[in-house]
Amino acid sequence: MAPIPGSGLAKGLAVTLRTMTKKTVTEQYPDAQPDLPPRTRGVIGLFEENCTVCMLCARECPDWCIYIDSHKETVPAAAPGGRERSRNVLDRFAIDFSLCMYCGICIEVCPFDALFWSPEFEYAETDIRDLTHERDKLREWMWTVPAPPALDPGAEEPKEIAAARKTAEKLAAAAQAERAPSDDPQGEES
Hints:
Blueprint: H1 7-20, E1 43-46, H2 56-60, E2 66-75, E3 85-96, H3 105-109, E4 115-118, E5 132-133, H4 135-140, H5 159-183
């Protein structure tokens, strides 16, 4: 059976009339900023003080978009008679966001918590070569990294915090015990 001429046009107009009365879902982006979920993957921020130039992030990156340069520096002995140590000093840390696929592997493998997700997403450039951001720009994005979510109230306390609390309580009890005999008037003889 042949379709009735103009039936497609009638169906299209019916859809148009049906949606004309509904509220629009379009957000006016530049004027109204979107509410982003807490774990948004926007851009990667660098906490440079924690970076030990271990190169794990660059080695594990599937896109090879992380560029790290460093040099060795000699650190004098901490104690007399000790030996000198050497440490890596970060010269360059750059991420090419034109290659990055935002997988987060670099953040997951970093053993020293030097890389973090920032919800910042407005970093467009007019030239693709400008999407390679150096450590100064990555350091600026650290200020936009949200605080970690609060622990579940029913969760067990992390073992590091529990150990530190026990040590602090022992030190406080020892300090209290030292003060107690000197403050005790019965311990003195007349």
